Structure to design on (570 residues):
């Protein structure tokens, strides 16, 4: 189990994560819902151990072991990976080379082709370079294919739908299910409630904390109703009660 | 290809050096392939094909060669230029004059290999004239010794007539550089296009200096000059990319990427853009610094160490 306990993170006095508590059981599909700017991507970076995202307070645990001090590579060796929101360019590197990490992953051409097809691209892309000749959406699909090539225990998909058209929500669901069918815990971070349908458990994030959690359909419906138009982008809301009071919703 | 009996042993060594630099030695003996083989201060092998005229001779400490591709001739197989120096010390001078006549097209594959030299100065002077609607591609790969004792001074002046195309690629990534001073100056006429691309990897105390200059002098001429330098250890690198927009609708782009790795590096880049015609458009991109942290994190999240990820990114940049 992967766990965040009382995590607090600030950048230059601006509080980004605020006493955040989350648990991710093995072999389950999770969705982390929230509007832009609520701290969702920060959670992905923090779980992965990216240098700038070390919490000032609180810890990250993996199967009861505190891994807060570990870096990105060490955490990947423990089976944690992220498909980051921004799919960066890799000049001169072909898609096949990227998917196999230059031969570090022992995989055949057909393995790479299969992963790419699951992500919605044909095998022609294997020869193409992961540079600015590809659109952001194409690079995003390659990134999603790359996590399919890895054998990780925990995969975080940070806004997998960003830069990809609506029709591709099926593709994202297929990727989540393929990963999950091999026992991988999939944590999908998104601001689109449609993705929540394909998960076992949902968290709603607001102002860097868990505002509500539970069955995905309930959380998605609540998110759609309450957060469709965020009226407090720069104000901290710490409880459901506070949010509902602002919105004039009667208990 | 005929090799004079006196030079057969030397040819074998040159072939060995040529193969070290990635050259295909079988091409040097293929009669269908035009080629020039230079060892030290002499030409030890020369082959021409129909439509290609090659003249050559000696100069002090070196050779000269004039390669002319006749009007309208499309040379099917690349012309191979193999330049080697077998000794440890000395000076080698090579003067090339390339003429690609109107409507002709040709590709050169050049390998310069000095794997055993500890104190060598290699000076190359090239003049290039590309006729109307003609095409010339020149790929130049260097293989120097690991002693760092090779000094390469290269000066190229190219004129591209209306509608002509010139691509010049320079690669010195497999071995140490030593000292490098490369200058490329291109004069583009109407509708002419040029692409300059340099890739260099410096190690230890290598010293790199590149000046690439695009003179966009003809209407609708286009040019791009791109340099990628990986500077490690105590490498010193000075890169100047210039573009001069002197004609209407001419467009130029210059780009320099310098990746640093090591506390002792000393690198700089200077983009120079000058427009004398307000319908010309010039752009530039330049970056100096360590490998991008987002790229590193992406790869490390997949199980690569920082060292592996850095090398992977660098190999991509130099490929």
């Amino acid at each position: 189990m992967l766990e965040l306990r009382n995590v607090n993170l600030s950048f230059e006095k601006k509080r980004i994560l605020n006493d955040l508590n989350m648990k991710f059981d093995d072999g389950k599909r999770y969705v982390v819902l929230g509007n832009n700017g609520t701290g969702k991507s920060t959670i992905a970076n923090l779980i992965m151990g990216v240098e700038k995202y070390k919490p000032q307070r609180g810890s990250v645990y993996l199967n009861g072991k505190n891994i807060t001090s570990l870096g990105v590579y060490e955490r990947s060796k423990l089976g944690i990976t992220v498909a980051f929101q921004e799919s960066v360019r890799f000049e001169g590197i072909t898609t096949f080379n990227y998917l196999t990490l230059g031969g570090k992953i022992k995989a055949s051409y057909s393995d790479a082709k299969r992963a790419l097809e699951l992500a919605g691209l044909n095998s022609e892309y294997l020869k193409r370079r992961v540079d600015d000749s590809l659109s952001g959406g194409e690079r995003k699909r390659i990134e999603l294919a790359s996590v399919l090539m890895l054998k990780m225990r925990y995969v975080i998909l940070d806004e997998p739908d960003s830069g990809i058209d609506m029709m591709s929500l099926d593709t994202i669901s297929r990727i989540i299910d393929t990963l999950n069918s091999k026992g991988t815990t999939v944590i999908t971070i998104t601001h689109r409630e449609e993705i929540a349908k394909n998960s076992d458990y949902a968290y709603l994030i607001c102002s860097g904390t868990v505002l509500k959690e539970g069955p995905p359909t309930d959380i998605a419906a609540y998110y759609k109703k309450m957060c469709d138009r965020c009226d407090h982008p720069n104000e901290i809301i710490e409880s459901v009660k506070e949010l509902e009071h602002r919105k004039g919703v009667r208990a | 290809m005929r090799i004079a009996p006196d030079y057969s042993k030397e040819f074998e060594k040159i072939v060995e050096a040529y193969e070290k630099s990635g050259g295909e030695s079988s091409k040097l003996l293929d009669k269908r392939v035009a080629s020039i083989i230079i060892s030290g201060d002499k030409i030890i092998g020369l082959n021409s094909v129909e439509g290609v005229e090659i003249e050559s001779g000696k100069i002090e400490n070196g050779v000269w060669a004039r390669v002319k591709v006749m009007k309208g001739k499309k040379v099917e197989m690349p012309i191979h230029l193999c330049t080697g120096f077998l000794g440890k010390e000395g000076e080698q001078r090579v003067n090339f004059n390339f003429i690609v006549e109107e409507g002709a097209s040709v590709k050169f594959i050049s390998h310069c290999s000095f794997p055993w030299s500890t104190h060598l100065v290699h000076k190359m002077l090239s003049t290039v004239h590309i006729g109307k609607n003609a095409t010339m591609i020149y790929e130049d790969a260097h293989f120097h010794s690991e002693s760092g004792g090779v000094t390469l001074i290269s000066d190229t002046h190219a004129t591209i007539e209306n509608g002509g195309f010139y691509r010049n690629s320079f690669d010195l990534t497999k071995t140490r550089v030593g000292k490098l001073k490369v200058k490329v100056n291109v004069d583009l006429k109407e509708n002419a296009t040029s692409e300059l691309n340099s890739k260099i990897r410096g190690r230890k105390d290598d010293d790199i200096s590149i000046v690439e200059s695009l003179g966009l002098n003809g209407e609708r001429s286009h040019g791009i000059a791109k340099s990628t330098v990986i500077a490690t250890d105590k490498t010193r690198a000075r890169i100047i990319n210039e573009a001069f927009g002197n004609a209407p609708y001419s467009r130029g782009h210059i780009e320099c990427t310098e990746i640093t790795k090591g506390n002792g590096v000393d690198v700089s880049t200077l983009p120079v853009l000058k427009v004398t015609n307000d319908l010309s458009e010039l752009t530039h991109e330049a970056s100096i610094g360590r490998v991008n942290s987002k790229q590193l994190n992406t790869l490390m999240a997949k199980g690569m160490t920082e060292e592996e990820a850095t090398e992977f990114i660098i190999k991509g940049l130099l490929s």
Notes: The first helix of chain B runs from residue 8 to 20. The mean pLDDT of chain B is 94. Chain B touches chain A at residues 292-295, 297-306, 308, 312-313, 315-319 (CB under 8 Å).
